[in-house]
Amino acid sequence: MQETQHDKLQREGFSSSLGVIAATLGSAVGLGNIWKFPYVTGQNGGAAFILIYLIATLLISMPVMLSELMIGRKTNANAVGALRKLAPQEPWFLLGVSGVLSAFLIMAFYTDVAGWVFSYIFKAAVGTIHSTSPEQTYAVFQGLVSGVGEPLFWQIFVLVVTGTIIMSGVAKGIERVTKILMPVLFVLLFIVDIRSLMLPGASEGLKFLFDPDFSKISFSVVLAALGLAFFKLSVGMGTMTTYGSYIGKEEDLPRIALKVMLSDTLVSIMAGIAIFPAVFAFGFKPNDGPSLLFITIPMVFSSMPFGRPFMVLFFILVAVAATGAMLSLLEVPVAYLVEEHKLTRRVATLGTISAVALVGSTATLSTSLLSDVMFFGKNMFDFYDFLTSNILLPLGGIFFALFVGWRWGYQRMFTEFSNDRHLKNEGFAKIYFFLVKYVAPIAIMLVLLAGLGFLKL
Ligand code: PHE
């Protein structure tokens, strides 16, 4: 049989078990941990929010992740093709279509933030953000996001970098790099954690992170936690379906989902410990929003020995983590266009990144030229973010869960779950199945309706 370039890429990427973990974790770990988790936690009141986020991750988003991995591996196809194969002539493929759309909308704002990170590597290197004055780091960030040319330049830069990697198919290269850099990111976060914990007033930040105050909880807060749980594990939109299709038949999918979930959560918590003590120590407010990472972290580094080179390294690692996630986002539409519309990988990639650049520029300019353009009371950036995390991903999650629970059924699911082997103990499979058949769809539906204000509970 003739091997297409795409087939080769698939094999190249996920050659070993470690490679599978690196790629899957590479998709999960990203700006979601280091930028989004802290700022959304800050906006939603801290520890109680984190607790709900953890529950949502364990009971809902991880089971959906496993469902997607199984669907992808079973069919060896992109998000749309996978559902077409499993349920031909039925509308389930629309779930894949919604995934392609979500990937696109997430990229629109994700590449904007990734652009800020790349620009911060240089700002750290030349010393612009080497300051322990809150006014100074805040001013630098404001200067960046209220500009036009600078953030657009970085966004396009990010798209070109990601596109080039996807096009030239150096998935293996990226894996090799992430395998080394992920541990380095851990170590560096650990150092920042220690430094942050030693700041005067650090305990205030820890209290915010770990001492829950349930009076702050409302349904919109629960919806935000659920949305973050989906965004974090890259689920509800076909990323894990697509990556599942590159995973070998002998890999233990439940174990992969568990490992990725645990490591990903650890990185988020570590990012929280890096940021919140500093927030309080330097007199910022935890609900400062998307700017949180960019105004606090420079101050933590600036207040420690060798801060400047460490800060450069830190932003490089965040850029690498963001790139791993963006590769998986870009892969969703690209795999779809290549397999379902027979485009070459090159054309599919170029087309997608050009379209993302166009739509993404409206997110990037939402803090400058387009700051008056509002949708449902949100600027374009916040709108794309809200629409994907809090609506499209949870909706996708409902349907992935329903698909496995009601359309696929226990037996077919179990074959994929167990790699067609006899398991001594089917307990986990049964729990998982119960979660996707009943718990996830009902819980997500209720949270969605209540969180959006359609249902008064
Ligand atoms: N999980 C990624 C992060 O936390 C973001 C992402 C979402 C990637 C959805 C792919 C799909 O940064």
UniProtKB/TrEMBL annotation:
Give a Pfam family name: SNF
Asked if the keyword Zinc-finger belongs to this entry, the reply reads no
Q: What GO MF annotations does this protein's record show? A: symporter activity
Q: What's the superkingdom here?
A: Bacteria
Q: Give the way it sits in the membrane.
A: Multi-pass membrane protein
Its Gene Ontology cellular component terms are: membrane
Spell out the family assignment given in the record's similarity comment. Belongs to the sodium:neurotransmitter symporter (SNF) (TC 2.A.22) family.
Q: Does the keyword Transmembrane helix apply?
A: yes
Protein name listed in UniProt = Transporter
| Organism expressing this protein natively | Desulfitobacterium metallireducens DSM 15288
- What transmembrane ranges does the database entry give? 12-35, 47-71, 92-110, 152-171, 180-197, 217-235, 256-284, 310-338, 350-371, 391-410, 431-455
